[in-house]
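The data layer described in this paper is built around a simple, fixed record for each protein. Because each token names a local backbone shape, the row as a whole describes the fold. We quote a single record here, exactly as it is kept in our systems:

***
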Amino acid sequence: MIKDIDHLPKSIKKAIRYIKQDASKEELNEIKRLVDYAIERRSLKLE
């Protein structure tokens, strides 16, 4: 796991804090689905 997140955008830092502290199980599943989809789409664009 990434320990040093200082180089990431503020919005990502806030999202990680939310995931660690406040997200319910249902929210975690939805966030994971959305992030996985976004990463897959971006990876395809970069190929």
Observations:
- The CA atoms of residues 15 and 46 lie 24 Å apart.
- Helices lie at 10-21, 25-46.
- The chain has a mean pLDDT of 93.
